[in-house]
Specification:
heterodimer; A: 113 residues; mainly beta; six-stranded mixed β-sheet; four-stranded antiparallel β-sheet; B: 114 residues; seven-stranded mixed β-sheet; 11 strands
Chain lengths: 113, 114
């Protein structure tokens, strides 16, 4: 069975500092991995996705993530946090097309001025 | 840019009442999902449609929840009767069914049961 673990339900960084949100997955087959962002009372917006091409994936708004099979990780990073990055971030996994996503519990990112 | 539409955005109801949510996926997307997101948690699948057929409803509480996608386009999710524990965000997502399984989410319906 697939599962996703997001370490840290809340991460707080200063504006301009590095953002690192952690995601570990469990999948019996090569996974598809996703990071979504959610602002209050809104739906989920895709930041980036890994689909077995390049292991370093670049997404929108300056975010990127690296797929590390040996560590079963897909951590999300951004070199310099902006106030507008404050939101809830979800890591998700699926193992093929046309299957539901399995989400982690989310990490709330706060950015301090 | 094409988007997934959902209505209403917010719904407040009393327990034991019936509620219904509507979703219009991106045109041409054959796969439609309904997820429920409890406050502070990640979304969890309720039901998946492929065109008008249910693919997976194993997590749908069928004693009170029903979902349909009669013409394979828009979809309705119904709860009858609503219970206090149903308070959550209900998210609809659609996908082309491409290999990479990218899903596009609507803005959600925030349900509060009093």
């Amino acid at each position: 069975a697939q599962s996703v673990t997001q370490l840290g339900s809340h991460v707080s960084v200063s504006e301009g500092a590095l953002v690192l949100l952690r995601c570990n997955y469990s999948s019996s087959v090569p996974p598809y991995l996703f990071w979504y962002v959610q602002y209050p009372n809104q739906g989920l917006q895709l930041l980036l996705k890994y689909t077995s091409a390049a292991t370093l994936v670049k997404g929108i708004n300056g975010f990127e993530a690296e797929f590390k099979k040996s560590e079963t990780s897909f951590h999300l990073t951004k070199p310099s946090a902006h106030m507008s990055d404050a939101a809830e971030y979800f890591c998700a996994v699926s193992y093929s097309g046309n299957t539901p996503l399995v989400f982690g519990k989310g990490t709330r990112l706060s950015v301090i001025a | 840019e094409a988007e997934v539409a959902q209505s209403p955005r917010y719904k407040i109801t009393e327990k034991s009442q019936a509620v219904a949510f509507w979703c219009d996926p991106i045109s041409g997307h054959a796969t439609l999902y309904w997820y429920r997101q409890i406050l502070g948690q990640g979304p969890e699948l309720l039901v998946q449609f492929q065109d008008e057929s249910v693919v997976d409803d194993s997590q749908l509480p069928k004693d009170r929840f029903s979902a349909e996608r009669l013409k394979g386009v828009d979809s309705t999710l119904k709860i009858q009767p609503a219970e206090l524990g149903d308070s959550a965000m209900y998210l609809c997502a659609s996908a082309q069914g491409a290999v990479d399984n990218e899903q596009f989410f609507g803005p959600g319906t925030r349900l509060t049961v009093l």
